[in-house]
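---------- Forwarded message ----------

FYI, see the SWIM-type domain-containing protein record below. Original note from H. follows.
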Amino acid sequence: MARPKLILICQSLGEFVTNNDGTLSYNGGEAHAVDITPDTLFDDLKLKLAEMWNLEYESLSIKYFLPGNRRTLITMANDKDLKRMYDFHASSVTADVFIQGKVGILRQAVNLRGTGRTSGLKVAETVMPIAAVAASLVSMRPSSVPADANLSNADDDNNDVDDSDGDDDDDKDDDDDDDDDEDDDDDDDDDDDDDDYKHPSVKTSTPTGSKAVTPDANANDSITSDMGSTPADTVKKRRRDASRKSGARHHPSVGFASDVGEKSKSTPRRKKISKRKTAKVLHEVADGLGNSDAVSLLGSSTDLPPEKLVALWKNGITGVDQEFKSVYEFREALQKYAIAHRFTYRLKKNDTNRASGRCVAEGCSWRIYASWDSTSETFRIKSMNKTHTCGGESWKAAHPAKNWVVSIIKDRLQGSPHHKPKEIAKSILRDFGVELNYTQVWRGIGDARAQLQGSYKEAYGQLPWLCEKMAEANPGSLIKLFSNDEKRFQRLFLSFHALIHGFQMGCRPLIFLEATSLKSKYHEILLTASALDGDDGIFPVAFAIVDTENSDNWRWFLEQLRSAFSTSQAITFVSDSEKVLKNLVLEVFENAHHGYSIYHLCENLKRNSKGPFYGDGKSSLRINLLAAADAVRLNFYKMHTEQIKRVCSQAYDWLMQIEPEYWTSALFKGEPYNHITGNVAESYINWIEEVREAPIIQKIEVLRSKTSELINSRRTDSSIWSANLVPSKEEKLREQRNKAHGLKVLFSSETLFEVQGDSTHVVDTDKRSCTCQAWKPTGLPCSHAIAVFSCTGRNIYDYCSRYFTIDSYRFAYSESINPVLATCKLLADGETDSETSHVLPPLTARPPAQNKNKKESETGGKVKKTRVVTCAKCKGTGHNKATCKAE
């Protein structure tokens, strides 16, 4: 029989209120009901909810809470998550979900629904809002930069350049001056050093293929900086300016130009007056612009392929008396018009009330002039000469404006966040015929990501506030932020109460220390401390973000760990042997043990094995190393290392430099760990990879939310377990039980027993050991011990490690990590109340380039040796045969 439908009570526009018991209630807002079935697809559900609430598809987040858990929400992001949610509520008729997102549906979302598939969901009648107990996992995506801020900056710069003409009456905008302004343009062709040669800067993103485009309402700012220039270029530009002033006539290169040219540094007074004068007007204009106003008259066709879109742009400017809502709409249409007709123009008179442009090619007759018409309250074209006499020469030297490049790149990144600069440059050349170099695209990517995700630099200023709120939401947590005297970021330590409690109550006294790069522009390093739960799952204990990986930061990280733990139990730490953390661990934790990571040993052995290889070949090195590490007897350890020596003597010599007492079970005294041969840091690497281009605030939120989801998921999974041990250990115990059949037990005393089978072993139940050496390292009774328990009527589970019991496992995941409810508001407003919030990004030098073959960055940053050129004629060095001077 088909499973019944599940009714989702979809709630949004409300707010969360914290109750006295730590749970959260959702008050206010509205609610709608949607039916789903096991066949419902996540994309269909997400699209339906976006249309229902009028929210942007890409920004939409759907969250729900598990039955019986009223503290933390679980995020739905794909079909698998939706199915799990349905299964969790299999015994329920309804389930509460909470919707968040930005207002405004994106047109590309409509394309997600295929014409040939069934959505599997049905919208039920609208229901009254209800107060549901829930927790809020807030999206960390920052909102866009306010439009009014961009507009203010734009016209500040515009008015600055108008001053450079030396005309104090340029602020007058009467329509009667239109003809005079046009004449001034013609007269000043050779004199105006501040004229800006402009290739149109399109604000509306234009994708490849049939993907829809998201209009950038905030991109109306036409003022852009020269992304492609270097300090040397700046000096050259000044020299060219000087040459023009002295009478030299050159055709200037068209860089990433603004609408109005460079800022004049010689008119600070006029700049201040202009800024005050235009601020009010700009805010009024920005306040009057709606979503539809931010799109040009051609914006309705942005879901077309680029070639058809460009064809439509050709009609964006029709001629005299064409009207626009504002100067911003006129500029946008003109920019697209110029791209479509493949020419470059320059705007000279360019402010909120007028815009005068001409082709940059010297002597070309193309002109356009538009200004504000107070009668019709529109921005109208007053005159235009559509004829080009330059033969397309202006397009050859065209360099696109920065904001146009950024808007196009931003659209590319929305579809694929990890696009490479070369890929983006090829797509722009293919779609628009605009050729960009690598530097231009690379800088454009940085600006586009800042608009999509927020500023990297400003995110550091929000860290003190975020740390304070995380500590308030999670009492008992250890969260510490440190900066230097210059208020630059140095270190951040995070260990939530749920993690500290879980480690002490349910995990083995075993911690893996790892370091991985956050892959950001500031090269921060993520330090992690991870334990193992009873089912050998990685359990996060603590995180630290530091400006660089060195001994001082590792020592500080270990000291924070020590202050977080109240237990006096000896802890075993495991790390990469090449990081040289052994002495630091033993200094900070006096009664601790230290071992070398088996995963890193295998990787380092592979990297240090140059050959030649004999016998079983290079592939056998890893097999023998794992066998040597897992050997419980010294003779087995020696046997496998001798096998390595037969295959590659160089690999053997390297391995012998690594102290065996820190990695082989035969000599190691701490908590057994050699069965963990995978990369413990892999989970964190995958988490960071998802947001590698995001600011630090979002990366911290990902660490918190992913850890929270991990805890909730494992808590839910363990709630249905009914055995005494976790599943993996229960299975191993079952295997040992089967091996115990047929073994003969001889009693020596109440605690000593002799067990006979293929071989004879002695079991000591008091010391929990067997001469087969299989009991103590694993924490589970061996087959010989199980035979003894069967004969003596003892309970097998009394002799299993307590860390393997389901109770301990549930203790480890009994606490939850609470979210910071106000995070979204913080990122949107960019405001903090703390006076100490001015934390700056770290000043960290770029790490040495990584050698792909040797992975030098993981081995202490060794520099590759320079190849020595040897002459084939004289056998000398430093030259070759062609340049040899020997006779």
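H. also flagged this: Residues 455-594+687-720 form one domain.
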